Amino acid sequence: MNIKKIISFGFFLFGVMTFAQNVILSNVAKTHENTDKFLYKINPEITKGDYLGEILVNGFSNDDVAVFDAIYKKAKQIGANTFSWRKPDGLEDEAFNSNHYMLSLYYVAANDIPKEFNTIYLVASSNKDQKISINKDKLELKERHFIKKSFNAGEEITVSTRQFLGSGIKVTGKEEHPAQYFQISNFKVKENKSIYGGINIKTSDIIGLERSYGDFLTTIYTEQK
Q1: Quick one: CA dihedral 58, 60, 61, 65, positive or negative?
Q2: Distance between CA 149 and CA 120 in Å, rounded?
Q3: From CA 32, how far away is CA 17, in angstroms rounded?
Q4: Exposed, middle or buried, 95 (CB in 10 Å: 0-12/13-18/19+)?
Q5: How far is Cα 16 from Cα 36, in angstroms, rounded to an integer?
Q6: E strands present in 37-167
Q7: C-alpha of 208 from chain center
Q8: 134 close to 159: Cβ distance less than 8 angstroms
Q9: Is 64 helix (H, G, I), strand (E, B) or coil?
């Protein structure tokens, strides 16, 4: 193989790796003017919004921050502030496919978006199982899974990573306290420089997430019962 062919093959491989995962604004029904910085998940059967279009995510990537960043930018191009996973037509029982999925985009007045109270979401990392304890109950949180815990006002939930010098949090239920999202990680995460500034990333075992990113992860990850 001569040097020219080697260089061409190298560019081909780079192209495959670069474009193995695509985020496409596949349909635009209309646009909406708004300055909302959030992109929350809704159930369109319960929350009626102004349908704006569709995003197609094709190909798998473990870099969930980059994927959401691309989705966010596409959604804001048409003024969306909410989204939902759309099951393929005629396949109502189809499970979520992380290699190929559609997100429907909507605009919903901020006051009409439902809020969830006294609930925490514990989200695993994208590529490793995590050992944790919840109120001293030990368990393993599978990669690309999450656990949802609801509790009453005054009730306390303690979460630990079960690591030497690891992190722990205590969350106490309060009246109308918004849902909180935490990602469990045992490695350092690079600082996020996304335009929406929604992901609160820091070096820690337990990372607090802004709702937009938390809603996205709990859409593309599987709930662990």
Answers
A1: positive
A2: 5
A3: 34
A4: exposed
A5: 35
A6: 40-41, 50-58, 82-86, 100-107, 119-123, 130-134, 137-141, 145-150, 156-160
A7: 13
A8: yes
A9: helix
**Token pair 């979401």 is at which residue?**
121
SS3 content of the chain, % helix, strand, coil (to 5): 20, 35, 50
Identify the residue whose tokens are 């599987």: 222
| Helix (H) or strand (E) segment spanning residue 222 | strand 222-223
Asked if 132 contacts 159 with a C-beta cutoff of 8 angstroms, the reply is: yes
Beta-carbon-side half-sphere exposure of residue 96 (alpha carbons within 13 Å): 17
Please state the length of the chain.
225
Per residue in 106-159, pLDDT (tens digit) is 999 999 999 999 999 999 988 889 889 999 899 999 999 999 999 898 899 999
Bridge partner list, 207 = 183
Name the residue with higher pLDDT: 7 or 37: 37
Q: In angstroms, rounded to a whole number, what is the distance separating the alpha carbons of residues 106 and 75?
A: 9
Write phi, then psi, for 150 (nearest 5 degrees): -110, 150
65, pLDDT greater than 90: yes
Report the interhelical angle of 64-77 vs 211-220 (nearest 10°): 110
Element (H, E) at 2: none
Residue range 209-221: mean pLDDT, rounded: 97
Distance from the first to the final alpha carbon of the chain: 54
Do residues 223 and 145 make contact, with C-beta atoms less than 8 angstroms apart?
A: yes
Q: Tokens for 23?
A: 């985020």
